[in-house]
Structure formats: C-alpha cells, structure tokens
Design brief:
single chain, alpha+beta, five-stranded antiparallel sheet, three-stranded mixed sheet, 51% helix
C-alpha cells in the first residue's frame, strides 16, 4: 500500500499526459473531420492515397537514414581526431555550441545561409565564388543590338553581322542595353577602329550617349567601349579567325576574315552565375538535414568522446606494438569497443528525427514546403491548418507513434541487456 501511494501521483500524471492523449488520438482517428461520423479505417487509407502525405513519409524515411548516421559518423570522426591535439577541447566546444541554440533560431540562421542571393546567403556566396574562379561570367549579360543595327540575332543567343566584312572597311558593331552603372570598372571611351587594307578591323561599343544626343550606329565621343568581348569571323559556318576587343572596344583580325560574317558569340552575353537553389524542390530536404547535422553532430561527439575516454589504452598500445596502423586500430579496436555507445547515439537521434518539425517549418519556404514535408509537420498542417481535419491528423499521429515504438523497444531491450551484465 505504501508503494502504491507513492506511485499513484506518477501514475496519474502518466495517464493524464501520455495514456489518455494516445487513447483519444486512436479513438479520434476513426471519425471524420467533424468527429460525429464513424469512418473506420478511411483516414488510414487516405494516408496512403494522399500524395502530400506520401511525400512526407518518403522524406521522413530519408531523414531517418541520412541524419542520424551522418551526425553519428561526424561525431565519431571529431571525437577520435581531437583526442590527442591540444586545442581539441576548444574545437569540441565550437562543435557543441549549436546545441545551445534553439531549433527555431537555427532555422532562421540557415534560412539566411541558404538564401539564393549571393550577397546574403553564405552558401551561395562561397559556391558562386568558387564557380567564378574557374568560369567567369560575362560583364555584358543584357547587351543587345539596337534599332537598325548591322547586327542581327543568331542561333544560341549570339549576334552576327547582316553582311560580310571587308579588309580596309572598319566594322561597326553597336550594342545597347547595359546600364552605365553596370559597366565594368575601368571602362574607357570607345574609339573608331582605323583602316588597314590588309586587316579586318572594327569596334564593339555601347551605342548610347548619356543625356541624349549622338548618332545611331556611329562611335560618338562620349560612348563607352565593350572591352574583353570575344569576336569571331565565320565563313561557311566555320570560325576562321577570333579576336578580343581592346580597352577602347577595337579589334583586329588577319586577312583570313575578309569576306566573313562577324559574330559575337553567346558567351559574351551569359547571365552572371546565380548559384544553387538550396531551398528549391530538389535540394530543400538535404539542405534542412544539413542544418540538423550542424546542430546534433556536437551531441554525438560529446557522448562518443566520453566513451572513447573509457576505452582501455593498453589495448590500443598493444595493437600498435603488434604492427597495426592507425586505421586498423580505429576499425578493429576503437569502433567495436564503442559499438554499444554508437547504437545509443544512433537510436537517440533516430527517435529525435522522427518528430522533427520546427527546422523544416522555418527553413523551407512556403512554395516548397510540400517537397520538404515530414510526418510531424504534416500532422501539424492537417490538424491545425486552414482546412483542418482532426480525424486525419489523429491517424497521422497514430502512424508516427507506430513508427517510433519499435525503435524505443530496441532501445529498452538494449538497456535491459546492459543491466543484466
């Protein structure tokens, strides 16, 4: 009786906070949205028939496979690599620090990190910087021929002269469409190319005079040059000569270009590389998983580091004396000894990701939330959204419980084995 009296308050709380909500959710899942009509298993059939919920199921499976294993693997690597270095403690502090940040705050941080604008999003700023190091974009993405221009559009976004050019007759290749403030730094005033009877010459420039005035298709004194633009001479569909415009917009070609069409290839007008759509439909789920790993790798590292400190050093030293290299010591001794702890960390993270909600809700924009959807988020949207259906929401909650219970049973079974040793 005394034991029952002490247990009674805990049992009452357990019943009120756990058993009753579970029981009511199971009961409510067999009724329609109004709660007045019994529909049997229809809500569970709807889970399998609804495309949005099926996407949430697939994404939840992806989370369960990728997020815990990645966080645990990184935690193991960090714990092992920092075990012997003097600054290991400082590094572990930095890696563990995200655990002190709430999921909401982390979501806001990574919403900015993944921003598509390279001037705001760190991920795209790095990606664009690396890309532009190897493939620089054009400085004239909006340039185009003006009215009555000798240039006409060609295949693939290039521009080509209407008529063949001749040696001794400078070619004029006027373009418009580039705002003065968008011209590259150091842009100089355009100059009309000189005449050479043995060469093909010409000028590529911005045929626009600020404030008005000037003559169309004529190089006026105040007009800017297009420096660094690639120019090609084409005969019978083949490029016979190439050149690059100088700082004053002029170019020079040999007599091979005589009688050819002058083409400004599409590479001159490529839009600046804008980076990756991290929060687009294709990458939004891996991007959110990356944010989760950033938060929880420190948790795994600290637990594994504690287990690593308890590993008998004599076993490691004996293996090294017997000729094992560090990789063999890690693979054949360290990991097997840490296996029970790795299972604990992995199972804990699996349970955690099954109910992930706030990171997905905050990071994924509304337009792609269906693509990033997970079961916990779908439970919220179905139960409390504008078109709320508590019956279907309860069915999703029951499904989530059914998926979590086996993982919890595995954990309980493992704990009992540990106690029996």
């Amino acid at each position: 009786m005394i034991a029952a009296a002490f247990l009674l308050p805990a049992l009452v709380l357990l019943g009120a906070l756990v058993v009753q909500p579970i029981g009511y959710s199971v009961f409510r899942s067999f009724f329609d949205r109004s709660g007045s009509t019994f529909v049997g298993a229809d809500n569970y059939h709807e889970i399998l028939a609804n495309d949005t919920i099926r996407t949430a199921l697939k994404n939840t499976a992806l989370w369960v496979v990728l997020a815990p294993t990645t966080a645990t693997a990184l935690g193991l690597i960090f714990a092992v690599l920092t075990e012997r270095v003097r600054w290991g403690t400082a590094f572990k502090l930095l890696v563990f620090m995200p655990m002190a940040i709430s999921m909401l705050a982390s979501g806001i941080i990574f919403r900015l990190v993944y921003d598509h604008d390279p001037d705001r999003g760190v991920a795209n700023a790095v990606w664009v910087g690396v890309h532009d190091t190897f493939a620089e974009s054009s400085a004239f993405p909006k340039a185009r021929p003006g009215r009555d221009s000798p240039l006409v559009p060609a295949e693939g976004g290039a521009f080509v002269t209407r008529d063949p050019v001749r040696a001794g007759a400078p070619a004029l290749l006027p373009l418009v469409g580039v705002a003065p403030e968008d011209l590259p730094g150091g842009t100089r005033t355009a100059r009309a190319a000189g005449s050479d009877p043995q060469k093909v010459t010409g000028t590529v420039w911005q045929d626009f005079t600020r404030g008005g005035g000037g003559t169309t298709n004529t190089v006026d004194p105040a007009e800017s040059a297009f420096a660094g633009m690639r120019v090609e001479a084409v005969k019978d569909g083949k490029v016979v000569e190439t050149a690059t415009t100088r700082a004053d917009g002029t170019f020079l070609m040999s007599a091979k270009a005589d009688g050819a069409l002058i083409r400004l290839p599409a590479s001159n007008f490529q839009e600046a590389y804008a980076g990756v759509q991290w929060l687009g439909p294709a990458l939004v789920t891996p991007a959110v998983i990356g944010a989760y790993v950033w938060m929880w790798a420190g948790f795994a590292m600290v637990l594994i580091g504690a287990g690593l400190a308890a590993v008998p050093r004599e076993l490691l030293e004996a293996a090294r004396v017997d000729g094992a290299n560090e990789w063999q010591v890690f693979r054949r001794i360290t990991v097997p000894l840490l296996a029970p702890l790795l299972v604990v960390v992995l199972v804990t993270l699996v349970i955690n990701v099954m109910k992930i909600f706030d990171l997905v809700f905050v990071i994924a924009p509304g337009a792609v939330q269906d693509d990033a959807n997970v079961l916990a988020l779908q439970l919220y949207r179905t139960s409390f959204g504008t078109d709320a259906d508590p019956g279907l929401g309860s069915a999703i909650a029951v499904l989530l419980l059914v998926l979590v219970v086996p993982v919890m049973l595995v954990n309980i079974r493992r704990l009992r084995k540990e106690r029996s040793r």
